[in-house]
């Protein structure tokens, strides 16, 4: 499950994946009450009206239209689902139109992340792969217990491209993966990945974007919440940089077997189209200050400056 304000009304809704039955989407009316609206919202089933063997979920604005979308993973022989947020409380299955299901149909899909790995302002897709049945190789030649994970690059024009074979040797390990978490483990400005594998040691993937000559700018921010919500869970992210506006939210947790985490909250007020008042903010200048009871996460990288408490 993931908690996110999908209808942009200022309160947090709840998207719950169910295994081989209709999903739940609990709409928060802002008074402490929830209404289950998955069917009229288009979130109960995939675009063909099928219930899926759902596993993991993440939420982010993949097409930078200011609305949070959802990516869900599923069982062998089923495509994952990218629910595009059309606004007005309506979601549509955009998997086929965007190519978001590439490379993952044959096996079971678990943890996932809508993460900008190359800091170009567009959320890419990472999917942890591996079958549930450890003897599946002996009686089903179409799949395997261990599999390579999948990395899809967001091209920025509404399409995802499978770049797993071009993304380095970190995408070559074969395991039965489950959970995946994303963070800048070495504080170099790009997001790394830690993958939990069944009956095996974890896989740590170091992002080499800047070591390989990447030039994109980034900013790390530490959140400062209130005493009862120190990480600012539920706060909305809004980053403006030139003609690009990025939107995200602080989520307490999502995916499959994924620990708690938070995202950055940014609301810049820069004059002019390109540069902030104090000059460019990038990997050479982090532009953040430590605050009590806060943490940094992989979603903290973009262009902006620290925002006040929500």
Polypeptide structure, described:
There is one protein chain. Helices cover 3% and strands 27% of the residues. The chain has a four-stranded antiparallel sheet. A four-stranded antiparallel sheet has the order 5-6-7-8.
Helix/strand-derived category reads: mainly beta
The N- and C-terminal alpha carbons lie at a distance of 24 Å
Order of helices and strands: EEEEHEEEEHEEEEEEEEE
Please give the radius of gyration in angstroms: 19 Å
Number of strands: 17
Name the strands of the widest sheet in spatial order. 1-2-3-4
Our estimate of the beta-strand percent is: 25-35%
Query: In which range does the helix fraction lie?
Result: under 10%
Q: Biggest β-sheet, characterized? A: 4 strands, antiparallel
Shape assignment: globular
List the helices and strands and how they pair.
Blueprint: E1 2-4, E2 13-16, E3 24-28, E4 34-36, H1 38-41, E5 57-60, E6 69-72, E7 81-87, E8 90-93, H2 95-98, E9 109-115, E10 124-129, E11 150-154, E12 160-162, E13 177-183, E14 192-197, E15 203-205, E16 236-241, E17 244-249
Antiparallel strand pairs: 1-2, 2-3, 3-4, 5-6, 6-7, 7-8, 9-10, 10-11, 11-12, 13-14, 14-15, 16-17
């Amino acid at each position: 499950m993931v908690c996110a304000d999908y209808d942009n009304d200022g309160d947090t809704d709840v998207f719950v994946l169910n295994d081989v039955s209709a999903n739940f989407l609990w709409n928060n009316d802002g008074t402490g009450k929830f209404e289950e609206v998955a069917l009229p919202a288009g979130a109960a089933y995939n675009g063909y009206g099928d219930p899926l063997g759902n596993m993991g979920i993440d939420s982010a604005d993949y097409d930078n239209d200011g609305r949070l979308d959802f990516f869900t993973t599923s069982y062998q022989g089923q495509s994952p689902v990218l629910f595009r947020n059309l606004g007005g409380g309506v979601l549509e299955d955009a998997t086929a139109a965007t190519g978001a299901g590439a490379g993952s149909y044959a096996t079971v899909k678990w943890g996932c992340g809508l993460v900008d790995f190359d800091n170009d302002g567009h959320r890419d897709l990472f999917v942890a792969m591996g079958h549930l049945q450890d003897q599946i190789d002996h009686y089903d030649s179409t799949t395997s217990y261990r599999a390579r994970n999948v990395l899809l690059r967001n091209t920025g024009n509404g399409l995802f491209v499978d770049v797993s074979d071009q993304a380095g040797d970190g995408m070559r390990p074969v395991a039965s993966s489950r959970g995946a978490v994303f963070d800048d483990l070495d504080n170099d400005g790009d997001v790394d990945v830690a993958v939990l594998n069944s009956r095996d040691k974890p896989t740590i993937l170091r992002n080499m974007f800047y070591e390989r000559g990447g030039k994109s700018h980034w900013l790390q921010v530490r959140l400062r919440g209130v005493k009862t919500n120190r990480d600012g869970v539920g706060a909305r992210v809004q980053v403006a940089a030139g003609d690009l506006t990025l939107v995200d939210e602080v989520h307490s947790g999502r995916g499959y077997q994924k620990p708690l985490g938070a995202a950055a909250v940014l609301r810049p007020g820069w004059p002019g189209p390109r540069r902030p008042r104090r000059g460019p903010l990038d990997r050479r200048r982090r532009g953040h200050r430590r605050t009590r009871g806060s943490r940094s996460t992989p979603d903290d990288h973009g262009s902006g400056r620290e925002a006040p408490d929500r």
